[in-house]
Model the fold of this input.
Amino acid sequence: MTVKVNPPYRTVITLQDLEFGGTQRYAVHLLKHLNRDLFNVELWVLRGGEDMLPMAQSSGAPVKYLSRNSWVSPRALWNFFWKLKGQKPDVLYTMTAVPNIWGRIFAAATTDSTVIASWRRTQEQQFESLLWRLTDRLICNANASKAHVVKRHDVDPKRVAVVPNGVDASYFTPDSSCRDPKPTVVFIGRLVRQKDPFTLIEAFRLLRKLVADARLIMIGHGYLDAKIQQKVAASGLAEHIEVVPGAKDVRPFLRRGWLFTLTSISEGFPNVIIEAMSCGLPIVATSVGGVPEIIEHGVNGLLVQPRSPELLAQSMAQLLLDDETRNLMGRRAREIAIERFPVEHMVRMTEEIILAAISEKRS
Done:
């Protein structure tokens, strides 16, 4: 067996890319904060994408690209296989779809590593019914995700752990002096169908009938970029909608907002919601996946059904027009982010799960 008896354990985290995303931010938090007396950690990336590379490098942990292509090429997978075979890490933690699939297959063929995999959504993407048996622990970021993967894929629940995302509340801080003078809604997310940005644009069109001077800031990029631009232009509201193609630091945009919204049709436990909460914003979001584990309706935000632009518009208007309720929810949102979702707690829970998996594999 290649797993060492004593720490620090050589730990490799793998990602498909370092583009903006909640999983990528979780990986960067681990790079920065894992106890170096227990884990000698590095990051392997299977393809290009450098949005979060500076943050990853600031951790001091090695960051190694196995390919700089725009997609995960056969060469990247070849490099992944041989790197695992040659270096045989004590712990392999696979994140995002392609590493979750191929990392577990390659590890089973080449190493005795303790294998940790991630499941951070409720949508199908990584052949879990087949691959969970190659996994010492599966880490979900929401109870809803665990319930789904256990029921849908018949995964042994003893192998599944839940680690809610964490936020650095000293980094994501409120600043009321930056708030836009006009009622402003902020959305941050990949422009992909899962996030349902088209419902957001339609809801904003309806919102303008209720709050005439409302504005919308959309930060993100994805394969729907061009269609979003077309939709915004066709709406006749282009002068009231600001589309920002991704930003390394989203805090200035969050601080401009009066509220934050997320319109996803499926989710795990979205990082961006607790970051917005930490900046003192109330949330209007769809009640999907792990979102109800973060938002208590009427306390730190409002929940609506997915694909419901009318309900979304009404909920946003309710908060934009009621300063007292909006400010109270914003204050409570930050309190909940600090109390329930500190990044330090997330990292310590992850450490405990990995150490337990190592101990079990060694026994």
